[in-house]
Design a protein that fits this description.
The protein has 474 residues and is an alpha/beta fold. It has 2 domains: 144 residues, no CATH class; 279 residues, 3-Layer(aba) Sandwich (Rossmann fold), CATH 3.40.50. 51% of the residues lie in helices and 10% in strands. The chain is built from 20 helices and 7 strands. A 7-stranded mixed β-sheet has the order 3-2-1-4-5-7-6, sandwiched between helices. Helix 1 packs antiparallel against helix 20, helix 8 packs across helix 9 and helix 17 crosses helix 18. It is globular, with a radius of gyration of 25 Å. It starts with a helix and ends with a strand.
Length: 474
């Protein structure tokens, strides 16, 4: 444990030291790319190497990076790509596979009878199918009678845990729900599950009846606001009353817990003796509150979800909102599709120049344009739609709009190149968040083992890493 703790601490320190000088690039909002000349944030050698690439090479850059193929690039770009690669999760050696988790913790992995997609899209089916068996295996090993699903949503994971593995699940979500609709949905899930069991002839006739009884849906959902001071013991008592059971141990799980909820889940696990294991997949990093971000001022004015570890708290480390936002861009998906940024991003950056030059009170104003339902056919259409949405009466004829487009058309490649480079750097922001959470778990003596595991396909589910932790025997 001490050796792994040192390894995680060293990796996090190395990563942060590398990332800090590049944060101005990662935190760049591309809306301001032309209006604030963001291209000059790159040194001249790197600019030259990027501009030497044609559009095909730029589009191939994510895949080439993931394959560690840097032979076709200039000296400055090659050097940077190798440095980024050396600070990725794989290169830092901090990711474990499930087989390692099961072996080191002496856990027997369980498998679901059914993973059906009648109520879920392909992405959700993939995620729930994998996570369901992982959670069930952890619960079986720790003798946890109850699963606490934080941010449970409609209860897809909870339902599969209950139906496939007979577990009691208490779901908590801040969003309200209609109890009548929820009851009807659970009844439909139960009927569908039973029908699939019969069709697949998973059991003999006598055993099948008992199996269906054992695997009745045991999921209870409540609406509550969660904080790190949330009383898990009270929730277990309420669940015991609802299910007519007595619960002494539980596991805390969460599939794509947004923003601070992932941090809260981790803190609750560490601080609640009755919680025996944790399995959490976070997402929506842009919704995290940072403890040392300038916008979060005043003692107690916000409930920061980053950083958690003493290591980064001592540094008063800040990522920045834009860095957290772009950290969610799906690198592996870009590598597969080989697509450059859409035209609308270029149009929006040019529009910002128009706003800056045409509005006298531009300084300090924020312009939220949003997305157009149907992609604009050209820049004229986009600009007129955006100005109308912003309720700005700027008199611009077609020739003037065309003039702006022509003025920056030769600069489009700079935006493309900057976007691709920022994409490669941005995934290190997610790495920082994940390692900070892992380091936090390592700092607690009551936690026996902690792991960062890639559970899902990065193409199907970009937020594919789970934090798994197990308490020491009490």
């Amino acid at each position: 444990m001490a050796e792994k703790k040192l390894k995680i601490s060293t990796a996090l320190g190395k990563l942060v030291d590398f990332l800090v000088p590049h944060l101005p690039v990662v935190n760049t909002h591309l809306v301001h790319f032309y209006s604030e000349n963001k291209w000059n944030r790159l040194d001249e050698g790197l600019q030259s190497d990027l501009l030497a690439l044609d559009e095909t090479q730029l589009a191939d850059l994510p895949q080439e990076f993931l394959e560690s193929n840097f032979k076709n690039y200039g000296q400055h770009l090659t050097h940077l790509l190798k440095d980024i690669n050396q600070h990725s999760l794989d290169a830092l050696g901090v990711v474990d596979d499930l087989e390692t988790v099961w072996s080191q913790s002496e856990i027997k992995p369980l498998e679901s009878q059914i993973n059906f997609d009648k109520f879920m899209k392909a992405k959700k089916t993939h995620e729930v199918g994998v996570l369901c068996d992982v959670v069930a295996s952890l619960a079986d090993n720790s003798n946890s009678e109850l699963i606490v699903d934080l941010g449970c949503g409609k209860g897809a994971l909870a339902s599969m845990l209950s139906l496939n593995h007979g577990l009691y699940v208490s779901g908590v979500d801040a969003a309200g729900f209609n109890s009548h609709t929820e009851d009807k949905r659970q009844q439909k899930l139960q009927l569908t599950f039973n029908a699939i069991v019969r069709k697949n002839k998973c059991q003999g006739d006598d055993e099948k009846v008992e199996e269906e009884k054992a695997n009745s849906l045991k999921f209870h959902r409540t609406t509550q606001y969660l904080s790190k001071d949330f009383d898990v013991r009270n929730l277990m008592g309420d669940s015991g009353s609802f299910f007519h059971q007595s619960f002494e141990r539980c596991g805390i799980v969460g599939l794509h817990t947004c923003g601070n909820l992932a941090s809260t889940s981790i803190q609750l696990f560490a601080n609640s003796p009755e919680c025996r294991f944790l399995c959490n997949v976070g997402c929506c990093y842009h919704m995290l509150d940072e403890a040392f971000e300038v916008d979060c001022v005043g003692e107690g004015s916000c409930h920061p979800g980053f950083p958690l570890s003493q290591q980064l708290q001592c540094k008063r480390f800040v990522l920045g909102r834009n860095a957290r936002m772009v950290s969610q861009q799906p690198l592996e998906r870009y590598a597969q599709t080989k697509q450059l940024h859409p035209d609308v991003l270029f149009y929006r950056a040019v529009l910002q120049v128009i706003l800056k030059e045409k509005i006298e009170s531009y300084s300090g104003l924020e312009f939220q344009v949003g997305r157009k339902r149907k992609p604009a056919a050209n820049f004229r259409e986009y600009a007129r739609w955006a100005l109308n949405k912003l309720e700005l009466d700027l008199q611009l004829d077609d020739s003037e709009l065309d003039g702006y487009l022509q003025r920056f058309e030769c600069e489009r490649k700079k935006l493309q190149a900057f976007f691709q480079l920022r994409l490669l750097l941005a995934h290190l922001a997610e790495t920082t968040i994940l390692l900070d959470r892992l380091a936090f778990l390592m700092e607690h003596e009551n936690i026996g083992s902690s792991y960062l595991v890639k559970l899902f396909s990065g193409v199907t589910s970009p937020r594919c890493y789970a934090l798994i932790a197990i308490k020491r025997p009490s």
